[in-house]
Amino acid sequence: MELLKLIIFAAPARARSGPDAVRARGFLGPLPRALPRALRARGGSETTLQRGGPAWTEAQRAAFEADGFVLQPGVISVDECEALRATYDGLFRGEFDTKIYPDEWHWREGISRPEAFREIVNAWKSSDAVARVALDETIGRRCAELMGWGGARLAQDDVLWKPPGAEGVAHHRDAPYISANFVPEERNSVTVWIALDDADEATGVVEYAPGSHAWADAGAAGVAAASFHDGRGQSPMRAAARAAGVDVEVRRCVVPAGSAVFHHQDVWHGSGENGTPDRPRRALGLHYVRDDVAFRPKPDYIYGRYDLGDGVVHDAFFPRVWSAAGAERRAADRRLGGE
User: What is the pLDDT of residues 253-294, one digit of tens each?
Assistant: First the structure.
């Protein structure tokens, strides 16, 4: 309901004069038309728990707090993995269900190198299959439970495809790209990395430095400028570890298709190259933020284009997927309906 209210609220009457009016018209136009379709596509519910995996165990919660990441089985089904893999082919050909372009689209069929890493950002706006998972309330609920939030909203999704021969991804933290655009910044973001193919060290699975979410911030600048995989040991992750006075341990996860790694905004992570001759490594990355964040002044990256100058993180662009208050209201409605 909150999303539909925002659609009504984000009417042309809100547009200001000058550049702000142009920006508001440009970005408030297509997305509200896409939202009802996305909501219908997402499926699942907090009662059926069709996605998101089982309830967290105490051991999983402890692992997340200690290591900064935790493996969760059965986040989506094998059938849904297959459906998403088929969708990826069309997405990179520019076949968008909603006729709305995603925010970023890296790799073009017939133009880009076949072995190059492929990525699309915010495909939920373009693809029913991606929206079905990215807007699932149980996945959002699992994030909120880990982080101690009262609710979760989708910040962005990442369609990820590492074909055979693709290079690795430099070790980095998500906080400078996502969390830093919002206030309060501390513990405001968590990532869900869902494997669509069985992922292991050979295909360049995601890998982490356990406990690195607790390191000092020193050395975090320029995280995209160097790669841990260049063999020279000069990556920003190593610099951050030296500044924190700790030794670096890298742990590579084996993630079966349909399972996911939930990781903290500040944990250092990356991936190696796909050294296999014939095994693609496809994944769906979902980045959620706590539902009561506001924009910091002048947010950057893709977030700044959706800042209307009032600091409000609007549901039309960053859908609220789950909230404890909403769950309580629905439970109360069900109880009243049964009387």
Answer: 999 999 999 999 999 999 999 999 999 999 999 999 999 999
Q: How far apart are the first and last CA of the chain?
A: 24
- Residue carrying the six token digits 């069985």: 198
Rg (CA), the chain: 20
Q: Helices marked H in the chain — which ranges?
A: 2-9, 19-28, 30-42, 58-67, 78-91, 128-134, 137-147, 236-244, 324-338
Alpha-carbon gap, residue 258 to 80, rounded angstroms: 8
As a whole number, mean pLDDT of residues 93-120 equals 95
Q: pTM of the full predicted structure? A: 0.84
Rounded CA-CA distance 66/87 in Å is 36
From the list 28, 131, 130, the residue with the least C-alpha distance to 84 is 130
From residue 226, alpha-carbon distances to 176, 213, 233 in Å are 15, 19, 10
Contact predicate 244/218, CB 8 Å = yes
* Cβ neighbours, 10 Å, residue 158: 18
Cα–Cα dist 97/327, whole Å: 30
Residue 235 has pLDDT above 90, yes or no: no
Any bridge partners for residue 295, and if so which? 182
- Check whether 91 has a pLDDT greater than 70: yes
What's the CA gap between 321 and 153, in Å, rounded?
A: 5
Which among 96, 98, 77 is positioned nearest to 88, based on CA atoms?
A: 96
Distance CA 245, CA 139 (A): 35
| Contact yes or no for 301/158 (Cβ under 8 A) | no
**By C-alpha distance, which of 195, 201, 189, 182 is closest to 263?**
189
Please give the structure tokens belonging to residue 336. 């009243």
Encoded tokens for 227: 């790669």
Structure tokens at 8: 């009504």
Tell me how far apart the alpha carbons of residues 12 and 26 are, in angstroms, rounded to a whole number: 11
pLDDT digits (tens, 9 = 90+) for 185-222: 999 999 999 999 999 999 999 999 999 999 986 444 44
Give the residue carrying structure tokens 């997305």: 31
